[in-house]
C-alpha cells in the first residue's frame, strides 16, 4: 500500500468532516449527509489499507 493512497484517503476523510461541519453551520442537511458519506467511504478505504498492510 502506497503512502500516496493513505494520504489521499485521509484527505477524503478530512474533506468529509469539513463538508459535514459546513452543513451543520448552514443547516444544510444534504451537505451534512454528503460529508458523512465521504467519511464513510474514506473509512472503508482506510480499513482496506490496514488489511493490505497486515499481509505485507
Structure characterization notes:
The protein has 56 residues and is mainly α. 89% of the residues lie in helices and 0% in strands. The chain contains two helices and no strands. The chain has helices spanning 3-26, 29-54. Helix 1 (3-26) runs antiparallel to helix 2. The mean pLDDT is 93.
Q: Between the first and last Cα atoms, what is the distance in angstroms?
A: 9 Å
Q: What is the total domain count?
A: 1
What's the order of the H and E elements?
HH
Helix tally? Answer: 2
Radius of gyration: 13 Å
Average the pLDDT over all residues and give the rounded result. 93
What's the total count of β strands?
0
Region (Disordered): 1-56
Domain CsbD-like: 5-55
Biased composition (Basic and acidic residues): 1-27, 46-56
Family: Belongs to the UPF0337 (CsbD) family.
Amino acid at each position: 500500500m502506497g503512502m500516496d493512497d493513505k494520504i489521499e484517503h485521509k484527505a477524503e476523510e478530512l474533506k468529509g468532516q469539513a463538508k459535514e461541519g459546513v452543513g451543520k453551520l448552514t443547516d444544510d442537511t444534504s451537505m451534512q449527509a454528503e460529508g458523512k458519506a465521504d467519511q464513510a467511504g474514506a473509512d472503508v478505504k482506510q480499513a482496506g489499507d490496514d488489511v493490505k498492510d497486515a499481509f505485507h
